[in-house]
Amino acid sequence: MAVYRIKRCRSKEMNMYLLRVLQEDDIELVRTWMQQDYVSMWFGDADEWVAEMKDRDKEYDFIHHFIVEDNQTPIGFVQYYDYSKIPGEEALSQPPETYGIDYMIGDRQLLGQGIGKILVKIICDKVLIENPSAVRIAADPTIEETRKNVASIKVLEANGFEFDRVSGLYIKNISFK
To answer: Is the pLDDT of residue 11 over 60?
Structure first.
């Protein structure tokens, strides 16, 4: 369990964010979040995501699912995965030790408050802590060429991600100093 103390952008107070492993009783909450229009337009069918979460100890054991809490209240969902283990040719487009991330804010009232930046920072930190040999983190805020999640792109760029024209993904290369 990881705890982060982060000052939110438009607030003078310090918030304490907790990243905890997704539990079985969290799945319906995540489904509810994914069915909201501002989420479903980017995440698609909530049932597919829920099926992955329910099978997280078997076929999808390479995906690490988490809930983010703010002062003990669930506010978002994040996950990361070893890019080389995703099915299909897409996995071949990235070097070994690349990890993909997904994230969402669960409460519409929290949109536009800097929470997205916090979620991405938290999940990127988690990737690097658990995978010290990681060379790259990838995210895909684009559903189709004509549908780009501009807010998510800004969040990724604020966290050091850059658009990769070859893969069409947003990439954060990890440098070891």
So the answer is: no
